[in-house]
Specification:
Layout (H helix, E strand, L loop, with lengths): L3 H14 L4 H4 L7 H11 L12 H17 L2 E2 L6 E11 L5 E6 L3 E3 L5 E5 L5 E10 L5 E2 L4 E2 L10 E5 L24 H10 L4 E6 L1 H4 L3 H8 L2 E4 L12 E6 H10 L4 H8 L7 E27 L10 E7 L4 E6 L2 E4 L2 H20 L7 E7 L7 H8 L8 E6 L11 E5 L6 H9 L5 E3 L14 H6 L4 E6 L10 H12 L15 H19 L13 H9 L2
Parallel strand pairs: 6-9, 9-10, 10-12, 14-17, 14-18, 18-21, 19-20
Antiparallel strand pairs: 1-13, 2-11, 2-13, 3-4, 3-13, 5-12, 6-13, 7-8, 13-17, 15-16, 19-21
Length: about 550
């Protein structure tokens, strides 16, 4: 009598066989659910202690992934090694030393992490920022949109208060800042970077669940323990002393004491005429840190292409292997296992690597597998990979990333971050549509998902890139089930200790994502032409410049 998982695999095989691309799929190895299950179960176990970079658990994950690649016959892909060393500075704030106070036109002792979450802006034994609080709207300087929230105001030594996301589009300018879709100007990483360029002492971002795309407990869970940074380049501007988030109602109460209405300030910020507003409130933030200079590893493997002329070109498959490690306890559990995020994605890409290695006929181009570290710290591992690629970035024709590979079941739709930025989106749609699978539009374009996953690090150096994940139209589930499940995960489990392995997961959905990514990557590796950015994509010029340098 077949087991449940064997039956699930048989069901997946039947779905694959029904595809209009049956001729190609007949030679594609079925994605092994038992193997996916074993990898997912181990990578998300308590033994790995949440897989934080530069920890024992993180190192165990790296060694395990490399061992799996070697057992599959995937060759080392980082200058003859499986490991690409990523230098990481680890800064740990002492919670009992955190002081955040307001004086002047408003007085308050802000509680961490109930009112604010703050952390070090650089690798220093103490962090401090004291200065007047200045509201700078969205904190954006975007000449291509004729937008400047700073208007030449000298904010050196100031504490900046800024709104999450970027300015909204208007009826007159529906494409302003990407329309409904967030641009990089809306990402918290950009806001801190611009604050540094402006010489600010610190910055607090005002949190609201809808605009941020996640609740306050995610901010707490992601930022209340250790912080990891790449070593700063010698030509970088001086860092801001303190970075942080502040609850919306807390910020509103402070401003109200100073005679300012936050709701009115938001309205003013939505126009080009907005000018920075000095609040008359002095913020004083300080705390002690412990500092360690450490390293973690991207795990890289390669399957060499069959065409002597094209084997020096690559399709990259990526997934981040890290999570948050050990953090604040929730219901007595302090291990942030990261089963869905992103042991599932690693397990999917391991299945892709195994399939690529055992394929009897290799595609023309080579296939590179990058299991990157420190994604949760701000895409650090993929950023380092993009800035120090083991093969020239111009020779990477595309990057396909998987972050959260649906363990729940088969779907009729997929989400593709970046599908509207390059030829990858239409090409993937052309492959999936005859199979009865569609690409669904981003349900939360304002959340800026494109800039929050590792494919963005490849895009920043010009490589056409997407992240592929499941949609919400689940086979065998009632209408609305997928959306409700996604909302429940975001509110209750995302970046929480409860993101744990579930033995009841069928994992057919993880196998489906792996199969889609594998077949699409194989098509790209055999294609007569390489993917291209759309005319209005912000990364097109970088790509064209790198290709001219060949």
């Amino acid at each position: 009598m077949p087991t449940f998982r064997q039956a699930s695999l048989a069901g997946l095989a039947m779905a694959i066989a029904a595809s209009a691309a049956a001729a190609q799929q007949a030679t594609t190895p079925a994605m092994p659910i038992r193997e996916i299950d074993a990898n997912l179960r181990f990578l998300s176990s308590d033994l790995l202690e949440g897989r934080a970079p530069a920890t024992r658990g993180g190192a165990l994950a790296e060694q395990y992934i490399a061992a799996q690649l070697e057992s599959y016959g995937v060759k080392p892909g980082a200058s003859g090694a499986y490991f690409q060393k990523v230098p990481i500075d680890v800064v740990t704030s002492a919670p009992k030393t955190i002081k955040v106070t307001a004086s002047g036109k408003a007085t308050a002792n802000l509680r961490s992490p109930d009112d604010v979450v703050v952390w070090a802006g650089s690798v220093t034994p103490t962090s401090e920022a004291k200065g007047e609080l200045v509201f700078v709207g969205y904190g954006a300087k975007a000449p291509e949109y004729r937008w400047d929230d700073y208007k030449g105001m000298d904010v050196k030594g100031k504490i900046l208060l800024v709104l999450v996301n970027d300015p909204p589009a208007t009826a007159a300018e529906p494409g302003l800042f990407g329309g409904k879709a967030m641009t990089y100007y809306g990402r918290w990483t950009y806001k801190y970077e611009e604050a540094e360029r402006q010489g600010a002492a610190g910055m607090l971002i005002i949190h609201t669940t809808f605009e941020a795309g996640y609740p306050w407990q995610v901010v707490v869970g992601s930022n209340s323990t250790e912080h990891r940074l790449l070593p700063r380049p010698s030509n970088a501007p001086p860092p801001i002393g303190v970075r942080g988030w502040i609850q919306h109602d807390v910020a509103a109460d402070l401003l109200k004491q100073a005679g300012l209405d936050l709701a009115q300030l938001v309205k003013q910020s939505d126009t080009r005429d907005f000018r920075p507003i000095a609040t008359g409130i002095t913020m004083d933030m300080s705390f002690a840190n412990s500092v360690a200079h450490m390293s973690a590893n991207n795990v890289v493997g390669v399957v060499t292409g069959a065409d002597p002329k094209l084997a020096s070109q690559y399709v990259v498959y990526s997934a981040h292997h890290d999570h948050l490690g050990i953090g604040p306890a929730v219901n007595g559990d302090s291990i942030y296992n990261g089963a869905y995020d992103n042991a599932s994605g690693v397990s999917a890409i391991l299945a892709v690597a195994h399939a690529a290695a055992r394929a009897p006929v290799k595609p023309k181009r080579s296939q590179l597998f990058a299991f990157v570290t420190a994604e949760e710290a701000g895409l650090l591992g993929s950023q380092y990979f993009g800035e120090h690629p083991p093969v020239p970035a111009r020779d990477i024709v595309a990057a396909l990333n998987v972050d959260e590979a649906n363990p729940e079941g088969l779907v009729r739709d997929v989400n593709v971050m970046g599908d509207d930025k390059s030829s990858l989106g239409p090409a993937l749609a052309a492959m999936l549509t005859p199979e009865g699978v569609r690409i669904s539009p981003d349900a939360q374009p304002q959340a800026g998902h494109f800039y929050r996953s590792d494919h963005f690090s490849f895009a920043r150096v010009g490589i056409p890139s997407v992240t592929v994940s499941a949609g919400t139209d689940f086979v065998g589930k009632p209408a609305g089930w997928g959306k409700a499940h996604e909302e429940e995960y975001t509110s209750k489990h995302y970046h929480q200790p409860s993101d744990e392995y579930n033995p009841k997961w069928p994992l057919t959905g993880t196998a489906q994502i792996a199969d889609i990514v594998y077949r699409f990557g194989t098509r790209l590796a055999n294609a007569a032409t390489i993917p291209t950015w759309n005319a209005n994509a912000e990364f097109r010029a970088i790509r064209e410049q790198s290709l001219r340098a060949r």
